[in-house]
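Example for tutorial group B:
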């Protein structure tokens, strides 16, 4: 079989040889001729083949008919092919015969694709191979410890390829927050300048100050912890430059649970929704990735374990969630993993607050009250301690997940019942369509391919805006009256003068009696 394949490749290489005069090759010319015949369904094609061949050659040699016509440039597929061409270039020589072990920070996507293909899911092999080459390019430009292909998110214009990565120690911890901090500082400086310009006028007529205090903003989790433990890179096609997504904030996770938007494939697209989403499509994509990962990242039971170290146990009590691979993990029968009870979650649960660890909102309020000397202790006592939010612990069985409109949250099966010895176990999420997990032996993997939307059997009803605020109650004390006429003002002044005179007459006798 290999001999025949070599002959085919040799024949194709011969047909691809370009002519020194026309710079064309026979392989492309035959392809164009056959395309013309199939498109036009030419009758007696064998008799007309010479004429078709000449016509195809003449079309390539014809000059431009009109310079005013719009000239089409290279197609999108041609541009993409030029970008992906560099993925196949060998930049560094690899010593394959060396005895040293080389740590590769990305998995074998072709092996993963083969396992998923048995279950009828995944991407085609050519695309997976190009993604693997693109991930290799990413690991050569970023200081990563590990990376994996998280999945593909569909969009209305373009799709997103998502890679989940982890930086080396001391790398990738900085976050681009200068724009937000800079904007706030500029506004404060402008307000100070305006106050200086107003001078004494502002002191004479100061507007009333609002006594309302906004609720404290829930801080986001630091890099390499909680929901921001992993870093995500996205691109539209294999060969495009990878773009690092920003870290997620609790507010973005909370708002993403209340809206439902399709992705466009352009990261800087604004999100128009109610409630307003704090960010653009890159932030919304990051929020959906965090929600999908926290819900659908599962592994075979007893594959991970909690560390036995006492210090680790204390951190777990705080809700950090630390697990490690179980060296004593025993591989069971593949048919056992067709039962979802043999799968468990190994990613921390996202609390309603938008964090993996609960943050006490009264901690900051109590500090502010202690800093103020004039505050009474009664006001401190009025602050009711909120009940901490809790979620299911790590390594909770996936069978305990809440049902989705009456059906189980997961569906588990074997890729083949006729050849169970060579099959893999597939677990599919019914809550997030497109989330899949598989296990075969001592290896498992999670993959998402979908629209990034949660399942719902009912039409989505967006949240209604709050009711319009009522006007201030009208009354005689605050209602503006009509301006009096000149006669009315004169009559009022006369009445006031008479009243003042009567008061003076009443005071004179009292003064004489005292004398």
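The residue assignment follows.
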């Amino acid at each position: 079989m290999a001999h025949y394949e070599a002959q085919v490749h040799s024949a194709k290489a011969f047909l691809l040889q370009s002519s020194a005069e026309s710079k064309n090759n026979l392989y492309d010319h035959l392809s164009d001729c056959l395309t013309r015949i199939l498109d036009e369904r030419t009758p007696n094609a064998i008799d007309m083949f010479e004429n078709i061949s000449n016509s195809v050659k003449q079309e390539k040699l014809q000059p431009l008919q009109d310079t005013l016509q719009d000239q089409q440039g290279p197609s999108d597929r041609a541009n993409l092919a030029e970008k992906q061409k560099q993925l196949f270039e060998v930049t560094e020589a690899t010593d394959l015969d060396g005895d040293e072990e080389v740590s590769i920070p990305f998995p074998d996507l072709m092996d993963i694709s083969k396992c998923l293909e048995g279950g009828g899911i995944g991407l085609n092999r050519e695309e997976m191979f190009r993604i693997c080459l693109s991930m290799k390019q990413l690991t050569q430009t970023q200081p990563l410890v590990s990376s994996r292909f998280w999945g593909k998110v569909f969009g209305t214009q373009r799709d997103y390829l998502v890679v989940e990565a982890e930086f080396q120690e001391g790398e990738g911890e900085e976050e681009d927050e200068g724009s937000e901090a800079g904007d706030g500082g500029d506004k404060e400086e402008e307000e100070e300048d305006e106050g200086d310009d107003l001078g004494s006028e502002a002191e004479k007529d100061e507007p009333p100050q609002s006594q309302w205090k906004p609720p404290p903003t829930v801080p986001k989790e630091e890099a390499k912890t909680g929901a921001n433990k992993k870093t995500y890179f996205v691109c539209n096609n294999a060969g495009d430059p990878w773009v690092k997504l920003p870290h997620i904030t609790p507010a973005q996770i909370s708002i993403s649970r209340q809206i439902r938007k399709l992705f466009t494939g352009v990261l800087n697209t604004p999100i128009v929704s109610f409630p307003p989403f704090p960010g653009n499509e890159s932030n919304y994509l990051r929020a959906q990735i965090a929600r999908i990962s926290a819900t659908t990242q599962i592994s075979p039971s007893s594959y991970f374990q909690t560390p036995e170290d006492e210090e680790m146990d204390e951190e777990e009590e705080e809700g950090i969630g630390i697990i490690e691979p179980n060296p004593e993990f025993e591989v069971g029968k593949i048919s056992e993993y067709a039962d979802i009870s043999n799968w468990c979650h190994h990613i921390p649960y996202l609390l309603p607050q938008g964090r993996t660890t609960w943050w006490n909102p009264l901690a900051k309020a109590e500090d502010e009250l202690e800093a103020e000397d004039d505050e009474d202790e009664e006001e401190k006592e009025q602050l009711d301690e909120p009940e901490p939010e809790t979620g299911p612990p790590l390594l909770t069985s996936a069978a305990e997940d809440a049902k989705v409109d009456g059906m189980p949250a997961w569906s588990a099966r074997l890729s083949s019942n006729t050849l169970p010895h060579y099959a893999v176990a597939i677990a599919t999420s019914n809550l997030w369509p497109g989330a899949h997990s598989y296990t075969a032996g001592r290896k498992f993997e999670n993959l998402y391919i979908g629209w990034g939307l949660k399942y719902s059997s009912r039409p989505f009803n967006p949240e209604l805006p709050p009711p319009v605020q009522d006007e201030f109650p009208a009354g005689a004390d605050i209602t503006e009256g009509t301006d009096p006429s000149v006669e009315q003002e004169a009559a009022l002044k006369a009445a006031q003068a008479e009243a003042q005179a009567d008061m003076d007459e009443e005071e004179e006798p009292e003064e004489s009696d005292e004398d």
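DSSP finds 14 helices and twelve strands in the chain. Compare this with the pattern of hydrophobic and polar residues in the output above.
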